[in-house]
Specification:
Layout: H1 3-8, H2 21-30, H3 34-41, H4 47-60, H5 63-73, H6 82-93
Helix pairs in contact: 2-3, 2-4, 3-4, 4-5, 4-6
């Protein structure tokens, strides 16, 4: 799936079954369902999930927890806007 196809899919009620769980979390976040996005990756331990998890805690406004997950992901804390980080994560992991 391309980034544009992913963005076009945001008009649908449910994400494509072909998405990885991490990209699906970004899909639900874009749809305004933080809880669904978080629930998908909360229990996962891989670095990509930790990176998405960090972003979601930034969205939540919990910067302490976000920093914890950036460390787990071995990624620097993102300094741009939430929209910029969402785009960055999508481009990095799609």
């Amino acid at each position: 799936m391309t980034i544009q196809e992913f963005k076009n899919s945001l008009t649908e009620n449910f994400p494509s079954k072909s998405l990885s769980v991490q990209i699906e979390a970004l899909w639900w976040d874009a749809k305004g369902d933080w809880k669904q996005a978080h629930d998908l990756i909360d229990h996962l331990e891989d670095a990509v999930s930790a990176h998405i998890h960090a972003y979601l805690h930034r969205v939540e406004g919990n910067l302490w927890n976000a920093r914890y997950w950036y460390n787990r992901a071995k990624q620097p804390e993102f300094k741009g806007s939430l929209d910029e980080e969402w785009e960055y994560l999508l481009e990095k992991y799609i």
